[in-house]
């Protein structure tokens, strides 16, 4: 499908000529309403004329497009955005493109040369973007482009002022990308090369003529489209080529020993190692960067030998097993799209054993049913296709034998009920790679979107037999851990038989592995006959929980996690045992005929932190006045899940005899703490000290930070689970 900008309002600054003009024409040709801004200055920023912008507006209108001109300088950021609002009522996309040059060798650069360049490029981009920000935030959509330059990235003789401003814009974009993410405002930076009046003084005429601006515009359009999830990226673009840039950091060297001074001589002597880019890492966040410093502190503190760098050791052993975690972790698989209709939903429901025998099942089997729905566990299907389509084999650092890959665990979380038809886009990232000795575990995080909306999140845990021994990391804070069921009789048990053809039916939903149908393949894998798909048993268990505890209402289904313990043969009966604990359901699945446990540590339900808060609520009821005396403060909590706000709580240990309530804070919290559901659980279990969590960026605090000292009183002493 072609990319349309119908209904979108775009501001392109400096669009009276060169690259900006090309963007304006391209956006308009695809349906956008365009504000063509240009001051009409000369290349050094002198003079002013409305002719440049008017001409481009005329060109657009002559082709039937929608455009208005604006002649303000980008230094009047608000006025540019106001033009968009006046003419078209909104602003969706800002391309910061206006620019001038005042090239001088460094010592000859005057104050004016410096200031003008910073004002137009850096300050202008700041002012225009800031003016657009709240409009984008309120409509939960925005795309911002910053125009940097190779001169900034690499330096260029005679362009000290310009290169400083251009790389300043990259710094600005890096932070806007972070602050905008949760509002669906994405900010990316391009370093273009194109023939224009800015480059005609430095490039030969035939190069100016052949490096056409139309070879740059397609990247800008893609980055500004609602389908594009890229955020915080930096791209070089020109001549019909596009490449992405990122930071690389050498493994580096620890030069300090406990209770000995660190010396410049040690730096000199280890210089080659410090600068050696073998097995370099690619940090992408400030938390990753900070975490390595915290690591060094604890290594030095624990008396680790000089230079004994566990990351480096891991990487050098990696070449033997084909797995290189430093290369693989963080890699994205190619984006995959999955189109389906009600047919696939019904086929899946039949695949996981639904039947018209049960009148309740009709809403999943008949597209004419008034409540026709897609089973929540269908959420694994589109994301699985992103991995199966060969995506995993394209990841650098994962050179593995795919016949040795077993599906170990599965986690699925839904943010809204799955549509019964449409196109879903999945983006998979290697979240972590663990060494379990006998094998490697690859954790794959897959986000699946419908349009721009996140529909579900899957974590696949894949076990690669025999690929261990490459490193030191056995566990990951990114893993969704399975939980054992409570030590009591189950609250509900459902027994359901699979048919002889269950695997033959289930595979039509997209898992074509011959292991599940072809006897000779099954024999090669060491099985007597073809086995049922683990995800098919998972589907059985999921729908048992849905029926037993959620009245078959998919909107009440939040998450499910299972560990695959043993295979099931088609034709055997599955016995699902369920325990309700708070709003979570623990699940264990057995083969009835043999008693073998096939799914363990499973659960379905909401946030783990909900249970802790429920417990804290009970404690406050019992011991409230005592706690108020000890703590005397109001704590606001924001629990996040996959980077999104998932729940809010207020623990009031200041007023009356204390209280807990869920939802936004209606009294002023003395301190507000933001932490992910998983990290919260680590803090509660005492595995993660609050101070360390704060330092590593896992726990964020605003307000009276000193109150963090009282956190342990609340969480450790009173939330014993
Ligand atoms: P251009 O000179 O054709 O376009 C820049 C436009 O910005 C001009 O029409 C100018 O009137 C306008 N402008 C200048 N000051 C302004 C202000 N204060 N307010 C509003 N408009 C103003 O140059 P070109 O090559 O199209 O450059 C576009 C952007 O790309 C610039 O930011 C430039 O620094 C950047 N760039 C271009 C490269 C190239 O190879 N052409 C290389 C690297 C970066």
List the helices and strands and how they pair.
Blueprint: E1 9-12, H1 18-29, E2 33-37, H2 51-62, E3 66-70, H3 77-88, E4 93-96, H4 111-139, E5 142-147, H5 150-154, H6 160-180, E6 185-192, H7 205-210, H8 217-223, E7 234-238, E8 241-245, H9 264-269, H10 271-274, H11 286-301, H12 310-321, H13 325-328, E9 336-340, H14 342-351, H15 362-365, H16 380-388, E10 405-414, E11 422-435, E12 439-450, E13 453-465, E14 492-497, H17 502-506, H18 519-524, H19 534-550, E15 559-564, E16 573-581, E17 584-591, E18 597-605, H20 609-631, E19 633-641, E20 644-653, E21 659-662, E22 671-676, H21 677-684, H22 690-695, E23 699-703, H23 711-717
Helix pairs in contact: 1-8, 3-4, 4-6
Bound molecules: 1,4-dihydronicotinamide adenine dinucleotide.
Evaluate the radius of gyration: 29 Å
- Mean pLDDT across the residues is 87
Distance between the termini: 52 Å
The amount of helix comes to 25-40%
**Assigned CATH class of the largest domain:** Alpha Beta
Pfam families: adh_short, MaoC_dehydratas, MFE-2_hydrat-2_N, SCP2
Domain Ketoreductase: 8-182
Protein name: Peroxisomal multifunctional enzyme type 2
GO molecular function, one term: isomerase activity
Overview of this protein structure:
The chain is an alpha/beta fold and 721 residues long. It has four domains: 9-245, Rossmann fold; 248-305, Helix Hairpins (Orthogonal Bundle); 325-604, Thiol Ester Dehydrase, Chain A, CATH 3.10.129; 608-716, SCP2 sterol-binding domain (Nonspecific Lipid-transfer Protein, Chain A, 2-Layer Sandwich), CATH 3.30.1050.10. Helix content is 33%, strand content 23%. The chain has 23 helices and 23 strands. A ten-stranded antiparallel beta sheet has the order 9-11-12-13-10-15-18-17-16-14. Strands 3-2-1-4-5-6-7-8 form an eight-stranded mixed beta sheet, sandwiched between helices. A five-stranded mixed beta sheet has the order 21-20-19-22-23. The two termini are 52 Å apart. The structure holds 1,4-dihydronicotinamide adenine dinucleotide. Residues 13-14, 16-20, 37-41, 43, 45, 52, 73-75, 97-100, 120, 124, 147, 149, 192-194, 196-199 line the site of 1,4-dihydronicotinamide adenine dinucleotide (NAI).
């Amino acid at each position: 499908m072609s990319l349309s900008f119908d209904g979108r309002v775009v501001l392109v600054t400096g669009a009276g000529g060169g690259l900006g003009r090309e963007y304006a024409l391209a956006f308009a040709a695809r349906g956008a309403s365009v504000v063509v801004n240009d001051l009409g200055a000369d290349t050094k920023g002198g003079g002013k004329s409305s002719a440049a912008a008017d001409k481009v507006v005329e060109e657009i209108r002559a082709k039937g497009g929608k455009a208005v001109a604006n002649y303000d300088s980008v230094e009047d950021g608000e006025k540019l955005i106001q033009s968009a609002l006046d003419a078209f009522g909104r602003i969706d996309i800002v391309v910061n493109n206006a620019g001038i040059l005042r090239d001088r060798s460094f010592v000859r650069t005057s104050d004016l040369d410096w200031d003008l360049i910073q004002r137009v490029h850096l300050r202008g981009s700041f002012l225009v973007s800031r003016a657009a920000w709240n409009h984008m935030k309120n409509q939960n959509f925005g795309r911002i482009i910053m125009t940097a330059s190779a001169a900034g990235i690499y330096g260029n003789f005679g362009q000290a002022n310009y290169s400083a401003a251009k790389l300043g814009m990259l710094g600005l974009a890096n932070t806007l990308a972070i602050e905008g993410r949760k509002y669906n405002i994405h900010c990316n930076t391009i370093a273009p090369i194109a023939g224009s009046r800015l480059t005609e003084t430095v490039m030969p005429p035939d190069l100016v003529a052949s490096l056409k601006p139309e070879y740059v515009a397609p990247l800008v359009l893609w980055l500004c489209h609602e389908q594009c999830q890229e955020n915080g990226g930096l791209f070089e673009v020109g001549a019909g080529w596009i490449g992405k840039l990122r930071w690389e950091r050498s493994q580096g060297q620890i030069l300090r020993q406990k209770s000995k001074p660190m010396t410049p001589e040690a730096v000199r002597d280890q210089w080659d190692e410090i600068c050696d880019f073998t097995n370099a890492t690619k940090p992408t966040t400030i938390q990753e960067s900070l975490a390595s410093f915290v690591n060094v502190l604890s290594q030095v503190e624990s008396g680790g030998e000089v230079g004994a760098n566990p990351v480096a050791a891991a990487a050098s052993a990696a070449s033997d097993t084909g797995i290189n975690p430093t290369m693989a972790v963080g890699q994205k698989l190619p984006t995959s799209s999955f189109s389906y209709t009600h047919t696939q939903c019904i086929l899946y429901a039949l695949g996981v054993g639904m039947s018209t025998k049960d009148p309740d099942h009709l809403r999943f089997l008949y597209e004419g049913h008034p409540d026709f729905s897609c089973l929540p566990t269908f959420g694994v299907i589109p994301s699985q296709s992103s991995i199966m389509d060969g995506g995993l084999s394209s990841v650098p650092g994962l050179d593995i034998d795919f016949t040795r890959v077993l599906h170990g665990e599965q986690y699925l979380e839904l943010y809204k009920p799955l549509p019964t038809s449409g196109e879903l886009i999945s983006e998979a990232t290697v979240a972590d790679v663990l060494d379990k000795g006998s094998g490697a575990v690859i954790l794959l995080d897959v986000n699946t979107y419908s349009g721009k909306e996140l529909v579900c999140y899957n974590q696949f845990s894949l076990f690669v037999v025999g690929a261990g021994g490459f490193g030191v990391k056995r566990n990951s804070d990114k893993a969704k851990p399975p939980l054992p069921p409570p030590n009591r009789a189950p609250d509900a048990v459902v027994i359901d038989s699979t048919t002889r053809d269950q695997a033959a039916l289930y595979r039509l939903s997209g898992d074509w592995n011959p292991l599940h149908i072809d006897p000779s393949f099954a024999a090669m894998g060491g099985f007597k006959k073809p086995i049922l798909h683990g995800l098919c048993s998972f589907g059985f268990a999921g729908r048992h929980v849905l029926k037993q505890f959620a009245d078959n209402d998919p909107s009440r289904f939040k998450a499910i996690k299972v560990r695959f313990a043993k295979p099931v043969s088609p034709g055997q009966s599955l016995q699902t045992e369920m325990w309700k604990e708070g709003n979570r359901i623990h699940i264990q699945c057995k083969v009835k005929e043999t008693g073998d446990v096939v799914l363990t540590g499973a659960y379905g339900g909401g946030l783990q932190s909900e249970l802790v808060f429920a417990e804290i609520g009970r404690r406050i009821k019992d011991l409230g006045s005592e706690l108020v005396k000890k703590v005397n403060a109001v704590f606001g909590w924001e629990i996040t899940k996959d980077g999104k706000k998932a729940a809010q709580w207020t623990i009031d240990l200041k007023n009356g005899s204390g209280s807990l309530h869920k939802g936004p804070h209606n009294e002023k919290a003395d301190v507000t703490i933001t932490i992910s559901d998983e990290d919260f659980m680590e803090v509660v279990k005492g595995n993660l000290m609050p101070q360390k969590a704060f330092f590593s960026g896992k726990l964020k605090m605003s307000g009276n930070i000193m109150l963090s000292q009282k956190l342990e009183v609340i969480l450790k002493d009173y939330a014993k689970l």
